[in-house]
Amino acid sequence: MAVEAAAAPLATARLEARSREDHRWAAMALGASIWLLPVLRPGLGTVRPADLAIVGSTAVVVLWLGWSRVPIRTPFAVSMVLFGVAGLVAASVSGHATIGIIAVVQDLLLLAWCLAIANVCRTPETLATVVRAWAWSATVAASIMIVGAVIGLSALSGQEIEGGRASLAFDNPNQAGAYFACAFFVILSAGAIIPRRRRSVMTMIVAAGVLFAASNAAIGGILLGLVVVGILAIARRRGVASAIAAASIAALVVAGAAVAFVRLDVAEAAGESDIRLLRNTLGRGSESAGDRVGRWESLGDAYLQYPVSGYGAAATKAVLDEGPFNDAKGAHNDYAAALAERGLLGSIALILLIASITTRMGSIAVRPLTRGFAAVLGAPHFLAGALVVLAISSLTHEILHFRNVWVLLGLVAAVSLWSREDSASPAAARAIGDGGVS
Predict the structure, then answer these.
(1) What is the pLDDT of residue 290?
(2) Phi, psi (degrees; rounded to nearest 5) at 272
(3) 408-416: average pLDDT
(4) Comparing 426 with 204, which gets the higher pLDDT?
(5) Buried residues in 127-142 as b, exposed as e (16+ CB within 10 A)
(6) Does the pLDDT at position 17 exceed 60?
(7) What is the DSSP string of 4-32?
(8) Which residues 6+ apart lie within 8 Å of 432 measured at CB?
(9) All residues at 6 or more sequence positions from 275 whose CB lies less than 8 Å from its CB, including other chains
(10) Predicted local confidence at residue 423, as pLDDT
(11) At what angle do helices 124-151 and 426-433 cross, to 10 degrees?
Protein backbone atom coordinates (compact mmCIF):
# COMPACT_ATOMS: atom_id res chain seq x y z
CA MET A 1 0.00 0.00 0.00
CA ALA A 2 2.85 2.34 0.81
CA VAL A 3 4.42 1.64 -2.59
CA GLU A 4 1.11 2.40 -4.33
CA ALA A 5 0.71 5.62 -2.37
CA ALA A 6 4.20 6.71 -3.36
CA ALA A 7 3.64 5.81 -7.00
CA ALA A 8 0.42 7.83 -7.33
CA PRO A 9 2.06 11.29 -7.23
CA LEU A 10 4.69 10.08 -9.69
CA ALA A 11 2.03 8.87 -12.14
CA THR A 12 0.18 12.17 -11.80
CA ALA A 13 3.38 14.11 -12.47
CA ARG A 14 4.04 12.04 -15.58
CA LEU A 15 0.52 12.69 -16.88
CA GLU A 16 0.92 16.42 -16.28
CA ALA A 17 4.29 16.42 -18.04
CA ARG A 18 2.83 14.59 -21.02
CA SER A 19 -0.12 16.99 -21.12
CA ARG A 20 2.27 19.97 -21.18
CA GLU A 21 4.29 18.36 -23.96
CA ASP A 22 1.14 17.64 -26.01
CA HIS A 23 0.02 21.24 -25.41
CA ARG A 24 3.34 22.44 -26.76
CA TRP A 25 2.98 20.28 -29.88
CA ALA A 26 -0.54 21.64 -30.47
CA ALA A 27 0.82 25.19 -30.32
CA MET A 28 3.63 24.29 -32.73
CA ALA A 29 1.09 22.81 -35.17
CA LEU A 30 -0.85 26.07 -35.11
CA GLY A 31 2.39 27.99 -35.57
CA ALA A 32 3.20 25.91 -38.66
CA SER A 33 -0.22 26.64 -40.17
CA ILE A 34 0.29 30.36 -39.54
CA TRP A 35 3.65 30.21 -41.32
CA LEU A 36 1.81 28.91 -44.39
CA LEU A 37 -0.86 31.64 -44.40
CA PRO A 38 0.74 33.55 -47.30
CA VAL A 39 0.84 30.41 -49.47
CA LEU A 40 -2.49 30.37 -51.29
CA ARG A 41 -1.16 29.70 -54.79
CA PRO A 42 -0.97 27.37 -56.54
CA GLY A 43 -4.01 25.52 -55.28
CA LEU A 44 -6.37 22.79 -56.33
CA GLY A 45 -9.71 24.50 -56.96
CA THR A 46 -10.86 26.10 -53.71
CA VAL A 47 -8.35 24.07 -51.66
CA ARG A 48 -5.12 25.97 -51.03
CA PRO A 49 -1.86 24.86 -49.37
CA ALA A 50 -2.67 27.04 -46.37
CA ASP A 51 -6.04 25.31 -46.00
CA LEU A 52 -4.43 21.89 -45.70
CA ALA A 53 -2.25 23.23 -42.88
CA ILE A 54 -5.30 24.76 -41.21
CA VAL A 55 -7.19 21.46 -41.28
CA GLY A 56 -4.16 19.51 -40.05
CA SER A 57 -3.39 21.87 -37.16
CA THR A 58 -7.04 21.99 -36.10
CA ALA A 59 -7.12 18.18 -36.03
CA VAL A 60 -4.01 18.15 -33.81
CA VAL A 61 -5.67 20.58 -31.40
CA VAL A 62 -8.87 18.52 -31.31
CA LEU A 63 -6.82 15.44 -30.37
CA TRP A 64 -5.03 17.39 -27.66
CA LEU A 65 -8.30 18.75 -26.26
CA GLY A 66 -9.74 15.24 -26.19
CA TRP A 67 -6.68 13.83 -24.44
CA SER A 68 -6.11 16.62 -21.92
CA ARG A 69 -9.78 17.19 -21.07
CA VAL A 70 -9.14 20.84 -20.27
CA PRO A 71 -12.07 23.30 -20.22
CA ILE A 72 -13.08 24.28 -23.76
CA ARG A 73 -14.27 27.78 -24.64
CA THR A 74 -16.20 28.66 -27.80
CA PRO A 75 -16.04 32.44 -28.40
CA PHE A 76 -17.86 33.74 -31.48
CA ALA A 77 -19.51 30.32 -32.01
CA VAL A 78 -23.12 31.45 -31.49
CA SER A 79 -22.91 34.35 -33.95
CA MET A 80 -21.01 32.35 -36.58
CA VAL A 81 -23.34 29.33 -36.38
CA LEU A 82 -26.27 31.73 -36.77
CA PHE A 83 -24.41 33.32 -39.70
CA GLY A 84 -24.02 29.90 -41.30
CA VAL A 85 -27.66 28.94 -40.76
CA ALA A 86 -28.74 32.21 -42.38
CA GLY A 87 -26.53 31.45 -45.39
CA LEU A 88 -27.89 27.93 -45.80
CA VAL A 89 -31.53 29.00 -45.48
CA ALA A 90 -31.04 31.78 -48.01
CA ALA A 91 -29.24 29.46 -50.43
CA SER A 92 -32.00 26.86 -50.28
CA VAL A 93 -34.68 29.50 -50.91
CA SER A 94 -32.90 30.98 -53.93
CA GLY A 95 -31.74 27.70 -55.44
CA HIS A 96 -27.99 28.21 -54.85
CA ALA A 97 -27.61 25.43 -52.31
CA THR A 98 -24.28 24.08 -53.57
CA ILE A 99 -22.56 27.47 -53.47
CA GLY A 100 -24.06 28.16 -50.06
CA ILE A 101 -22.99 24.83 -48.55
CA ILE A 102 -19.39 25.27 -49.72
CA ALA A 103 -19.25 28.81 -48.32
CA VAL A 104 -20.71 27.79 -44.95
CA VAL A 105 -18.34 24.83 -44.63
CA GLN A 106 -15.45 27.23 -45.21
CA ASP A 107 -16.86 29.59 -42.57
CA LEU A 108 -17.11 26.79 -40.01
CA LEU A 109 -13.61 25.52 -40.79
CA LEU A 110 -12.15 28.97 -40.15
CA LEU A 111 -14.21 29.25 -36.97
CA ALA A 112 -12.88 25.87 -35.79
CA TRP A 113 -9.33 27.07 -36.44
CA CYS A 114 -10.05 30.29 -34.53
CA LEU A 115 -11.39 28.27 -31.59
CA ALA A 116 -8.31 26.04 -31.73
CA ILE A 117 -6.08 29.12 -31.39
CA ALA A 118 -8.23 30.54 -28.59
CA ASN A 119 -8.08 27.30 -26.58
CA VAL A 120 -4.42 26.44 -27.17
CA CYS A 121 -3.15 29.95 -26.30
CA ARG A 122 -4.26 29.59 -22.68
CA THR A 123 -0.72 29.97 -21.32
CA PRO A 124 1.92 32.62 -22.00
CA GLU A 125 4.22 30.00 -23.51
CA THR A 126 1.76 28.81 -26.13
CA LEU A 127 0.58 32.35 -26.88
CA ALA A 128 4.22 33.28 -27.48
CA THR A 129 4.55 30.44 -29.99
CA VAL A 130 1.62 31.70 -32.06
CA VAL A 131 2.55 35.39 -31.86
CA ARG A 132 6.14 34.67 -32.85
CA ALA A 133 4.96 32.52 -35.77
CA TRP A 134 2.83 35.34 -37.22
CA ALA A 135 5.43 38.04 -36.59
CA TRP A 136 8.31 36.15 -38.21
CA SER A 137 6.30 34.59 -41.05
CA ALA A 138 4.92 38.01 -42.03
CA THR A 139 8.42 39.51 -41.93
CA VAL A 140 9.87 36.74 -44.08
CA ALA A 141 6.94 36.89 -46.52
CA ALA A 142 7.20 40.67 -46.86
CA SER A 143 10.95 40.42 -47.43
CA ILE A 144 10.49 37.85 -50.20
CA MET A 145 7.80 39.93 -51.88
CA ILE A 146 9.85 43.13 -51.69
CA VAL A 147 12.97 41.46 -53.09
CA GLY A 148 10.91 39.99 -55.92
CA ALA A 149 9.45 43.39 -56.76
CA VAL A 150 12.83 45.14 -56.67
CA ILE A 151 14.60 42.63 -58.92
CA GLY A 152 11.57 42.24 -61.19
CA LEU A 153 10.90 38.56 -60.44
CA SER A 154 7.11 38.17 -60.61
CA ALA A 155 7.28 34.59 -59.29
CA LEU A 156 8.28 36.08 -55.93
CA SER A 157 6.47 39.42 -55.98
CA GLY A 158 3.18 38.22 -57.46
CA GLN A 159 3.06 41.30 -59.71
CA GLU A 160 0.99 40.78 -62.84
CA ILE A 161 2.81 43.59 -64.65
CA GLU A 162 6.15 45.26 -64.03
CA GLY A 163 5.75 48.02 -61.49
CA GLY A 164 2.26 46.84 -60.59
CA ARG A 165 0.85 45.94 -57.21
CA ALA A 166 2.54 43.01 -55.45
CA SER A 167 0.59 40.12 -53.93
CA LEU A 168 3.20 37.41 -53.23
CA ALA A 169 1.23 34.13 -53.31
CA PHE A 170 -2.04 35.66 -52.09
CA ASP A 171 -5.09 35.74 -54.33
CA ASN A 172 -4.80 39.50 -54.82
CA PRO A 173 -2.90 42.55 -53.51
CA ASN A 174 -5.74 43.60 -51.22
CA GLN A 175 -5.58 40.30 -49.38
CA ALA A 176 -1.82 40.64 -49.07
CA GLY A 177 -2.18 44.19 -47.78
CA ALA A 178 -4.69 43.19 -45.11
CA TYR A 179 -2.43 40.35 -43.98
CA PHE A 180 0.64 42.56 -43.62
CA ALA A 181 -1.34 45.42 -42.02
CA CYS A 182 -2.69 43.12 -39.30
CA ALA A 183 0.78 41.63 -38.76
CA PHE A 184 2.14 45.18 -38.39
CA PHE A 185 0.03 45.70 -35.26
CA VAL A 186 0.62 42.20 -33.91
CA ILE A 187 4.38 42.81 -34.03
CA LEU A 188 3.95 46.16 -32.27
CA SER A 189 1.88 44.47 -29.56
CA ALA A 190 4.62 41.94 -28.80
CA GLY A 191 6.45 42.26 -25.52
CA ALA A 192 9.73 40.78 -24.38
CA ILE A 193 9.50 37.83 -26.78
CA ILE A 194 10.73 40.17 -29.55
CA PRO A 195 13.41 42.69 -28.51
CA ARG A 196 12.56 46.33 -29.25
CA ARG A 197 15.18 46.96 -31.95
CA ARG A 198 14.32 43.76 -33.76
CA ARG A 199 10.64 44.64 -33.48
CA SER A 200 11.30 48.03 -35.08
CA VAL A 201 13.04 46.44 -38.06
CA MET A 202 10.27 43.87 -38.46
CA THR A 203 7.51 46.50 -38.45
CA MET A 204 9.35 48.55 -41.09
CA ILE A 205 9.68 45.52 -43.35
CA VAL A 206 6.03 44.57 -42.95
CA ALA A 207 4.92 48.19 -43.47
CA ALA A 208 6.93 48.22 -46.70
CA GLY A 209 5.07 45.06 -47.69
CA VAL A 210 1.78 46.95 -47.29
CA LEU A 211 3.09 49.73 -49.53
CA PHE A 212 4.22 47.29 -52.23
CA ALA A 213 0.76 45.68 -52.12
CA ALA A 214 -0.62 49.22 -52.54
CA SER A 215 -3.92 48.46 -50.84
CA ASN A 216 -5.67 51.72 -49.97
CA ALA A 217 -7.82 49.95 -47.38
CA ALA A 218 -4.76 48.47 -45.65
CA ILE A 219 -2.84 51.74 -45.70
CA GLY A 220 -5.84 53.69 -44.45
CA GLY A 221 -6.47 51.02 -41.84
CA ILE A 222 -2.93 51.34 -40.49
CA LEU A 223 -3.18 55.13 -40.27
CA LEU A 224 -6.57 55.09 -38.56
CA GLY A 225 -5.52 52.12 -36.43
CA LEU A 226 -2.56 54.08 -35.09
CA VAL A 227 -4.93 56.90 -34.17
CA VAL A 228 -7.21 54.50 -32.26
CA VAL A 229 -4.22 52.92 -30.52
CA GLY A 230 -3.03 56.37 -29.48
CA ILE A 231 -6.44 57.21 -28.05
CA LEU A 232 -6.49 53.94 -26.10
CA ALA A 233 -3.00 54.66 -24.76
CA ILE A 234 -4.18 58.08 -23.56
CA ALA A 235 -7.20 56.45 -21.91
CA ARG A 236 -4.96 53.96 -20.07
CA ARG A 237 -2.56 56.66 -18.83
CA ARG A 238 -4.65 59.81 -18.39
CA GLY A 239 -8.25 58.68 -18.17
CA VAL A 240 -11.41 58.66 -20.24
CA ALA A 241 -11.88 62.45 -20.37
CA SER A 242 -8.47 62.97 -21.99
CA ALA A 243 -9.17 60.16 -24.42
CA ILE A 244 -12.49 61.71 -25.47
CA ALA A 245 -10.78 65.06 -26.07
CA ALA A 246 -8.07 63.37 -28.15
CA ALA A 247 -10.70 61.44 -30.14
CA SER A 248 -12.60 64.66 -30.88
CA ILE A 249 -9.47 66.36 -32.17
CA ALA A 250 -8.59 63.30 -34.26
CA ALA A 251 -12.08 63.22 -35.77
CA LEU A 252 -11.80 66.88 -36.82
CA VAL A 253 -8.38 66.28 -38.37
CA VAL A 254 -9.60 63.22 -40.30
CA ALA A 255 -12.70 65.06 -41.52
CA GLY A 256 -10.60 68.02 -42.64
CA ALA A 257 -8.17 65.74 -44.46
CA ALA A 258 -11.06 64.02 -46.27
CA VAL A 259 -12.51 67.35 -47.41
CA ALA A 260 -9.10 68.56 -48.59
CA PHE A 261 -8.54 65.27 -50.45
CA VAL A 262 -11.72 65.76 -52.46
CA ARG A 263 -11.52 69.51 -53.09
CA LEU A 264 -7.85 69.54 -54.06
CA ASP A 265 -8.31 66.66 -56.53
CA VAL A 266 -5.53 64.71 -54.82
CA ALA A 267 -6.55 61.45 -56.53
CA GLU A 268 -6.30 62.98 -60.00
CA ALA A 269 -2.93 64.55 -59.25
CA ALA A 270 -1.63 61.27 -57.85
CA GLY A 271 -2.81 59.40 -60.94
CA GLU A 272 -0.64 61.69 -63.10
CA SER A 273 2.34 61.54 -60.77
CA ASP A 274 5.72 60.09 -61.76
CA ILE A 275 5.87 58.32 -58.40
CA ARG A 276 4.72 54.73 -58.85
CA LEU A 277 3.48 54.36 -55.26
CA LEU A 278 1.17 57.35 -55.60
CA ARG A 279 -0.22 56.05 -58.90
CA ASN A 280 -0.86 52.60 -57.42
CA THR A 281 -2.58 53.94 -54.29
CA LEU A 282 -4.14 57.41 -54.29
CA GLY A 283 -4.05 57.58 -58.08
CA ARG A 284 -6.60 54.81 -58.46
CA GLY A 285 -8.84 56.09 -55.67
CA SER A 286 -11.51 57.60 -57.93
CA GLU A 287 -11.61 54.55 -60.17
CA SER A 288 -11.90 52.19 -57.19
CA ALA A 289 -14.63 54.30 -55.60
CA GLY A 290 -16.63 54.37 -58.84
CA ASP A 291 -16.26 50.61 -59.21
CA ARG A 292 -17.51 50.00 -55.65
CA VAL A 293 -20.50 52.30 -56.09
CA GLY A 294 -21.48 50.48 -59.28
CA ARG A 295 -21.22 47.10 -57.56
CA TRP A 296 -23.31 48.22 -54.62
CA GLU A 297 -26.04 49.48 -56.93
CA SER A 298 -26.19 46.09 -58.65
CA LEU A 299 -26.12 44.41 -55.25
CA GLY A 300 -29.08 46.49 -54.10
CA ASP A 301 -31.12 45.49 -57.14
CA ALA A 302 -30.29 41.82 -56.58
CA TYR A 303 -31.14 42.08 -52.88
CA LEU A 304 -34.67 43.26 -53.67
CA GLN A 305 -35.40 39.81 -55.13
CA TYR A 306 -35.00 38.24 -51.66
CA PRO A 307 -35.21 41.14 -49.17
CA VAL A 308 -35.92 39.01 -46.06
CA SER A 309 -34.04 35.74 -46.50
CA GLY A 310 -31.24 36.87 -48.84
CA TYR A 311 -30.16 34.85 -51.86
CA GLY A 312 -27.48 32.62 -50.34
CA ALA A 313 -23.96 32.68 -48.94
CA ALA A 314 -21.34 33.65 -51.56
CA ALA A 315 -24.01 33.63 -54.30
CA THR A 316 -23.70 37.28 -55.40
CA LYS A 317 -21.79 36.57 -58.58
CA ALA A 318 -24.16 33.74 -59.54
CA VAL A 319 -27.22 35.92 -58.95
CA LEU A 320 -25.78 38.80 -60.95
CA ASP A 321 -24.93 36.39 -63.77
CA GLU A 322 -28.59 35.39 -63.93
CA GLY A 323 -29.95 38.94 -64.05
CA PRO A 324 -29.63 41.98 -66.34
CA PHE A 325 -26.42 43.24 -64.74
CA ASN A 326 -23.36 44.46 -66.60
CA ASP A 327 -20.69 43.40 -64.12
CA ALA A 328 -21.14 40.08 -62.31
CA LYS A 329 -18.66 40.14 -59.43
CA GLY A 330 -18.68 39.60 -55.68
CA ALA A 331 -20.19 42.02 -53.17
CA HIS A 332 -16.83 43.46 -52.03
CA ASN A 333 -18.37 44.60 -48.74
CA ASP A 334 -18.97 42.33 -45.76
CA TYR A 335 -21.80 44.40 -44.34
CA ALA A 336 -23.72 44.63 -47.62
CA ALA A 337 -22.99 40.96 -48.38
CA ALA A 338 -24.36 39.86 -45.01
CA LEU A 339 -27.69 41.57 -45.71
CA ALA A 340 -27.98 40.72 -49.40
CA GLU A 341 -26.74 37.12 -49.22
CA ARG A 342 -27.95 36.05 -45.76
CA GLY A 343 -30.87 38.38 -45.17
CA LEU A 344 -31.97 39.92 -41.89
CA LEU A 345 -30.82 36.90 -39.89
CA GLY A 346 -27.35 37.16 -41.38
CA SER A 347 -27.13 40.86 -40.55
CA ILE A 348 -28.14 40.17 -36.95
CA ALA A 349 -25.47 37.45 -36.73
CA LEU A 350 -22.81 39.83 -38.07
CA ILE A 351 -23.82 42.50 -35.55
CA LEU A 352 -23.53 39.93 -32.74
CA LEU A 353 -20.07 38.91 -33.98
CA ILE A 354 -18.88 42.54 -34.10
CA ALA A 355 -20.30 43.17 -30.62
CA SER A 356 -18.50 40.12 -29.22
CA ILE A 357 -15.20 41.14 -30.80
CA THR A 358 -15.53 44.72 -29.53
CA THR A 359 -16.39 43.57 -26.00
CA ARG A 360 -13.41 41.22 -25.83
CA MET A 361 -11.02 43.80 -27.23
CA GLY A 362 -12.36 46.36 -24.77
CA SER A 363 -11.63 44.06 -21.84
CA ILE A 364 -8.04 43.65 -23.08
CA ALA A 365 -7.51 47.37 -23.67
CA VAL A 366 -8.81 48.66 -20.32
CA ARG A 367 -7.27 46.22 -17.85
CA PRO A 368 -3.64 45.20 -17.35
CA LEU A 369 -2.66 41.68 -18.30
CA THR A 370 -1.22 39.30 -15.77
CA ARG A 371 2.54 39.02 -15.61
CA GLY A 372 3.07 36.06 -17.92
CA PHE A 373 0.75 37.33 -20.66
CA ALA A 374 2.18 40.84 -20.37
CA ALA A 375 5.59 39.36 -21.14
CA VAL A 376 4.18 38.13 -24.47
CA LEU A 377 1.98 41.12 -25.30
CA GLY A 378 3.63 44.16 -23.82
CA ALA A 379 1.21 46.52 -25.59
CA PRO A 380 -2.04 44.57 -26.11
CA HIS A 381 -3.99 47.68 -27.11
CA PHE A 382 -2.15 47.53 -30.46
CA LEU A 383 -4.39 44.58 -31.32
CA ALA A 384 -7.21 47.14 -31.55
CA GLY A 385 -5.29 48.70 -34.44
CA ALA A 386 -5.38 45.38 -36.29
CA LEU A 387 -9.15 45.21 -35.73
CA VAL A 388 -9.46 48.71 -37.21
CA VAL A 389 -7.66 47.43 -40.31
CA LEU A 390 -10.29 44.70 -40.62
CA ALA A 391 -13.16 47.15 -40.10
CA ILE A 392 -11.86 49.46 -42.85
CA SER A 393 -11.01 46.63 -45.23
CA SER A 394 -14.47 45.08 -44.83
CA LEU A 395 -16.01 48.24 -46.31
CA THR A 396 -14.41 47.56 -49.69
CA HIS A 397 -13.66 43.81 -49.58
CA GLU A 398 -15.19 40.64 -48.22
CA ILE A 399 -12.61 39.75 -45.61
CA LEU A 400 -14.41 37.09 -43.56
CA HIS A 401 -12.79 34.48 -45.79
CA PHE A 402 -9.32 35.98 -45.22
CA ARG A 403 -7.52 33.43 -43.06
CA ASN A 404 -5.52 36.00 -41.07
CA VAL A 405 -8.79 37.48 -39.78
CA TRP A 406 -9.41 34.33 -37.78
CA VAL A 407 -5.89 34.19 -36.40
CA LEU A 408 -6.37 37.70 -35.04
CA LEU A 409 -9.79 36.88 -33.59
CA GLY A 410 -8.33 33.75 -32.01
CA LEU A 411 -5.59 35.82 -30.34
CA VAL A 412 -8.08 38.41 -29.07
CA ALA A 413 -10.31 35.67 -27.69
CA ALA A 414 -7.40 33.85 -26.05
CA VAL A 415 -6.09 36.93 -24.26
CA SER A 416 -9.57 37.95 -23.10
CA LEU A 417 -10.27 34.43 -21.81
CA TRP A 418 -7.04 33.32 -20.16
CA SER A 419 -5.09 36.40 -19.06
CA ARG A 420 -7.26 36.76 -15.97
CA GLU A 421 -5.36 33.97 -14.27
CA ASP A 422 -1.60 33.87 -14.74
CA SER A 423 -0.60 30.25 -15.24
CA ALA A 424 3.06 31.10 -15.68
CA SER A 425 5.43 31.11 -12.72
CA PRO A 426 7.92 33.98 -12.30
CA ALA A 427 10.59 31.67 -13.68
CA ALA A 428 8.47 30.94 -16.75
CA ALA A 429 7.84 34.63 -17.28
CA ARG A 430 11.59 35.27 -17.18
CA ALA A 431 12.10 32.47 -19.70
CA ILE A 432 9.64 34.14 -22.04
CA GLY A 433 11.49 37.42 -21.70
CA ASP A 434 14.74 35.71 -22.56
CA GLY A 435 13.21 34.14 -25.64
CA GLY A 436 13.15 30.73 -24.01
CA VAL A 437 9.65 29.81 -25.15
CA SER A 438 9.55 28.02 -28.48
Answers:
(1) 67
(2) -100, 5
(3) 97
(4) 204
(5) bbbbbbbbbbbbbebb
(6) yes
(7) HHHHHHHHHHHHHHHHHHHHHHHHHHHHH
(8) 124, 125, 128, 192, 193, 372, 375, 376, 424
(9) none
(10) 41
(11) 10
